[in-house]
Amino acid sequence: MVLLAVTLAILLLLAGTLALRVPISLLTRNIDMPPAVLAVQGSVGDGRALLEGGYALRWDSRLLMLPLPHLRSDTVLEGGDTRLTGWASAGLRGFAVVDLSGRAGPGLARLIPGAWTCEMSATVRDVSLRWGWRDAAAGGNVATPAGICTEGTRQANIPSLQINLSQVGKDGLATLSSDGQPPMARIRLGRDRIIDIAIEPTAAEIFTALPRGGPITLQLPF
Question: Which helix or strand (DSSP H or E) is residue 40 part of?
Answer without folding.
Answer: strand 37-42
